[in-house]
Design a protein that fits this description.
Length: 343
């Protein structure tokens, strides 16, 4: 299991955000026992900053009986209530305020966290205190995937986008508690291999984007070096999309991340590399067009869980390295190992 404090770094880089030093110090010193406690801490600290600065505002449609016309007159309810003879009308109008879709989602997330038993009483109390600082006009939205998807379609500033990612991760592990109306239990998202594979891949790619200047960092589509009698047959070839490509004038590294429990698998009483992973990387290397003066290399990177691995080969004329990254060590060691890997 990845230590909870290190999850902070993985998530920050995966979400393309340089870790904040003051926040890192508070995370590093806190005795977190569950990932939910870390996510709640990040949600609270980010929400406090938004409240100090002032929650974002947007125009929301309001409907009310008015003595003066404003916006659009809604004839059907106005006539049904016989309001015209009273000098009144039902109007629909836009009003600027903090009751935006994002703020509604944030309030809904805090409402759910304020009731769960998966947080300490002190943290639940702090959640309720921060929720109480919201303007009364902000109405909680259901803390659901549909609401998250709706907010995801909006163009949010960086601070709100980070909190949206936190909310999404919290909601992903949320399950209703049986026989406990209104309460929610939460799974440890570190057990979700597909999710963690995506986090690990994005973490590595964005770490190199933010922490070094030698290479251009991208995820690239590789074109098959193939021909066919009928050109339409080429459309059936699968896409080749690298996890991370690091490129300079004299060196190109195709780095494929694999979030697996082990880099080796037992086969006939011996440990072997996972063949599909190696075949995939080999296909990437073999289909790269040659550039004079540029060394092409391949790396398979696994998180170290059961044992450390560092294997080096030459395949098809290209250096290939299969290596593990120890995510259980202090963050400084993780950063050092990643930088040394492409040195």
């Amino acid at each position: 299991m990845i230590p909870i404090q290190n999850l902070y770094y993985l998530l920050c880089y995966a979400w393309n955000r340089v870790p904040d030093r003051s926040e890192w110090q508070s995370v590093d010193s806190a005795p977190f026992h569950r990932p939910l406690e870390l996510l709640t801490h990040l949600l609270l600290s980010g929400t406090r900053r938004l409240l100090v600065k002032g929650l974002s505002q947007g125009y929301q449609e309001q409907e009310a009986e008015l003595t003066e016309l404003r916006g659009r007159v809604l004839l059907a309810p106005t006539l049904a209530r016989d309001l015209l003879r009273q000098g009144r009308a039902v109007c629909a109008y836009d009003e600027l305020g903090p009751n935006t879709a994002f703020n509604q989602l944030l309030a809904g997330a805090l409402d759910v966290l304020g009731r769960t038993r998966h947080l300490s009483s002190a943290q639940r109390q702090e959640v309720r205190r921060v929720r109480g600082r919201f303007p009364s006009s902000v109405v909680s939205a259901p803390f659901s995937r549909n609401q998250l998807r709706a907010v995801r379609r909006l163009r949010l500033p960086a601070a709100e986008s980070f909190l949206l990612n936190v909310c999404e991760l919290i909601q992903r592990g949320a399950l209703p508690e049986p026989d406990a109306a209104g309460r929610t239990r939460f799974q440890d998202f570190r057990n979700d291999e597909r999710l963690m594979a995506n986090v690990f891949e994005a973490f590595v790619r964005n770490f190199y984007r933010l922490e070094q200047r030698r290479y251009r960092v991208l995820s690239e589509t590789i074109t098959w070096q193939a021909t066919a009698e009928r050109s339409e047959d080429l459309d059936f070839l699968p896409n080749m999309l690298t996890d991370t490509t690091l490129e300079s004038s004299d060196r190109k590294i195709i780095l494929d991340t694999k979030y697996y429990a082990a880099a080796l698998r037992p086969r006939y009483d011996r440990q072997r590399l996972i063949s599909p992973h190696l075949y995939q990387l080999y296909a990437y290397l073999q289909n790269q067009p040659h550039r004079p003066g540029q060394q092409l290399e391949g790396v398979l990177l696994y998180p170290a869980t059961t044992r450390a691995v560092d294997l080096r080969y030459t395949l098809g004329g290209h250096p290939v390295r299969v290596v593990t990254l120890d995510l259980n060590q202090p963050w400084e060691g993780i950063a050092r190992d990643l930088l040394e890997l492409v040195h």
